[in-house]
Amino acid sequence: MDKAAGKTPWGAVVWSVLCFGFGAAPMAAIFLLAPREETMGDAQRILYVHVSVAWFGLLCFLIMAGTGVIYLLRRDLSWDHWSQSAAELGWLCTALTLITGSLWAHAAWNTWWTWDPRLATTFVLWAICSAYLIVRGSLEDPHRRARLSAVLAILGAVDLPLVIMATGWFRGIHPAAPDMEPPMRAVLLVSIGSFSVLFSILLKRRRAQLRLAAMLALREEKADI
Amino acid sequence: MGSFLTAYVVLWLGVAGYMVWLAAEQRRLQRTLDASQWGLAESEDHQPPASKAA
Question: Which position has the higher pLDDT, B49 or A85?
Fold first, then answer.
């Protein structure tokens, strides 16, 4: 079992300190270092977290599809644990992307939502992830659950290039990659890096929990026999 | 200013909520693990001598 997920109190302390550090670093950079944008004012600072959670959400979908493929090839449930862990975090990150994006849209476009291609494809991605988690929750047999989930994750990954390329392939109002001042770009990179590490820690911890839960279920099954 | 603050509050509520849920799940698993280990130890202690020899 992973030490951070076990009894060791030091593991929990280190875990908490790391989470606090990687959560506080981007906040300090955004509030103290990022210059105030002239047109949008403080509302522009939403961009730093919006891009960070959006990036990790997309990465989670890539992990789901990748580990899904590996599961289908090897039939090893440990890959399915990665997949579930990524799906839960991907769902959260995509939901946060939609919410922070909507708040940004209200400040920039004076509307909470518009069916812009980037927004629509991201919403579809979130809906696919919700369906994936509902399907997982409704199946008891671990291998059947892993098989169906892997197929759903691979089918869902078809939406990924559409989300990424939406601003280039279709006409919409979502900004593609706006020109930024060097200090703003640096803060954005710090934010993306810190949130990626924070979410990776959470991803790994959840995966350790799922492995422990599977081990306990197996032990219970053996005890029943 | 309102949208900007709301975005950060929502973000941290989401992340903190997920972390609290993870901690609760960890406690639940730990309790199950402790109970199962205690159960195993119990069954080994109370095994009749004949079955131990077998």
Answer: A85
We report the CATH number of the domain holding residue A122 as 1.20.120
Q: What is the ipTM of this complex?
A: 0.83
- The reply to whether residue A99 touches residue B18, judged by beta carbons under 8 angstroms, is no
How many CB atoms sit inside 10 A of residue A15's CB? Answer: 20
pLDDT digit string (tens) for A120-134?
999 999 999 999 999
Q: How far apart are CA A192 and CA A60, in angstroms?
A: 14
Between B6, B22, B39, which is nearest A206 by CB?
B22
Q: How many domains does chain A have?
A: 1
Confidence of residue B47 (pLDDT cuts 50, 70, 90): low
B33 at the A interface (CB within 8 A)?
yes
Minimum Cα–Cα distance from B40: chain A residue: A223
Q: How far apart are CA A209 and CA A92, in angstroms?
A: 18
Helices and strands in chain A: count of H runs, count of E runs: 7, 0
Distance from the Cα of A88 to chain B's closest Cα (Å) equals 9
Taking the C-alpha atoms of A99, A101, A38 and A170 in order, what is their torsion angle to the nearest 10 degrees? -170
Identify any residues that bridge with A37 across adjacent strands, giving them in sequence order.
A41
